[in-house]
Input
Amino acid sequence: MNAIILRVPRTLAWLCSAGWLCAAATFGATDGDDFNDNSKNAAKWGKDSTVRRGVLTERNQRLEYTCSNPTFEDESLRPWVLTRFPYNADWELRVNVFNTVEAFLAEQVASAGFKILTTGSPSNSLFAELYSSSLGSLPSRTGFDTELETDHETVAVVDREGGNGVTNGAVRIAFTSVSKVITIYYDTNISDGFQWVQQASFGLTGAGGADGNTQWGLNDTHQFAVFLYGYSSLIPVTSGRMHLDNFVAEGGVTPSGGPSPDPLGNFDFSFPTNNPFLTRIVSLTGNYQGVTPTSHARNYNIDVAQDESGKLAFMGNMDGIQDKNGNTEISAGGGTVKTVNGKPTLQIGGAFTGTRDGAATTFNGKATAPAELVDFGGQPRVSGTATYRSKVGGVPFSGKNLPVQILSPPGSAANLKQDWSLHLDISRKLVKGKERTVAAAQLALPNGDTIAFPEKAVRYSATKGYSLSFKRGTNITINPMKIDRKSSISIKRMTLGPESQPTGGTIVYQFLGQKGTANLPDFLAP
Output
């Protein structure tokens, strides 16, 4: 098909781009956003849907797309919520697009433009963009691309201006209600006024389009929802390299039953160790060495291991102490760490039979203490209660619920670990042939282990947000890897703000024998 060029005088083009004159002559309602206030207008724009590390930010009097630490697919979509666009009336959209991203490596892509969904079936879509890409060839090329999809299957792809070095342009989409045809135009240089080139036209009732036709099954009650987006793959996009500007929407009507795609993104949550009001979870695994705070002043070297359920095991040696077989390497009792009244608490108990300095010795006892170091006179100590029975050289000793203070061994503060984090990834994937919103998570425990939870399908509620539950993850740090049945994370009512940042919700965390509940926003990584 020959390209159709519509040449518009510069002054008239500027008035049209601002939503004046041209719109008034053809359409009833004209709205838009020039982004000049550098602030997102919540009355016009909804919550961004973010895939991994793509970000849309209104700054420098435009809508910029950026992406740091890129992955194989990063994206951010911003929905226009002030109006929707009718199936039974004409409408038109325009936006200026700037893209100076250069793809130097194979398979790199960066693009920005429009995406359109319908209330009849959100699985049907159309997008039109200005791209920079190295897909299939190097060096990179630029151009305008538009694609039509039905039930997530691509119906038609039209690529224009490949390799001509376009960096500033515009995209225009027009819908004709009589023919049910949607037409896409582009401009390769907006500095001299709009000179629209028809790129493609698609029929939505099976006929009428010059470049493709499909059957979306819409009726007069359905509406189109519009998004601006930025997309990138395997390429960093810094501020100023790719942006959209001067968005104009003509013929919009009051939204009615439009699609509301699930907000997506990557979220990092960390336990704020400086908040004394939150329930901590601690790991005591480590090596402890020191000298007993007694008249005998015995040197000791003890290894402590804490398993996934909070159980403790002790093994080591102490001057003058041997087991009944004469071994100096002793396994002495055990214990657990549990959450009691919102605090991690040690519950230690055990029995010993052997010798102390050659004298026959038996011991049976238990102790309870918060798993925290308390400063006494400039020295960290553990404070709690103990009950015990002992006999040394035939002489009995005993005590019940006695208050005890134990001088903390050197290095205890380093062993008493309580920092942990959760990485949550919510994205769209094909599950059994259908696109679904899925969530996966990785939990980094205080002891250094990482638990990877399997991916699962999730749903987002506009009023209740996401409710997610992760159990039976795999400990991927140890060899061989194994299922961790004791660690779990639940997130309830996670709502997202305009920039896809969590604004509310509750997190319930349970691992290493302990558990806690807190407000989710308190765990946002700085």
Summary: The first helix runs from residue 10 to 17. Residues 5-98+123-255 form a domain with the Jelly Rolls fold (CATH 2.60.120).
